[in-house]
Design a protein that fits this description.
The chain is an all-alpha fold. 61% of the residues lie in helices and 0% in strands. Keywords: Signal.
């Protein structure tokens, strides 16, 4: 098995655990369900100089439209840490995709 399927499997496991513990948590729990779509943002979450891909930004915009107060909360989910994402860098992804509001978190 190659590394990518293993990472995606681990991501799915963490996501499933997170959703289970977040049930009833409301809007952000629904936004966390979009973590797999945002996995393509991982390279931009590791390196602040790496431009987010168009696919990444489309996924970020979808989360922003569905749950505007939870955009950055999604990037702080433990699933992203499995992909080597640095939280302080991940919090800049929405801004780098042209989204001004990151919810309750502030941009670095």
């Amino acid at each position: 098995m190659t590394m990518r399927p293993l990472v995606l499997l681990a991501l799915a496991a963490v996501l499933a655990a997170g959703i289970g513990s977040a049930e009833g948590a409301g809007e952000c729990a629904r936004a966390i369900a979009r973590v797999p779509q945002l996995a393509r943002c991982a390279p931009a979450g590791r390196n602040p100089q790496s431009a987010p891909t168009a696919i990444c930004c489309v996924a970020v915009r979808k989360v922003s439209m569905a749950s505007p107060d939870c955009v950055c909360a999604v990037f702080l989910n433990d699933a992203f840490k499995l992909l080597g994402v640095k939280p302080e860098v991940a919090l800049t992804i929405p801004k780098r995709c042209g989204i001004a509001d990151c919810g309750d978190n502030t941009f670095p």
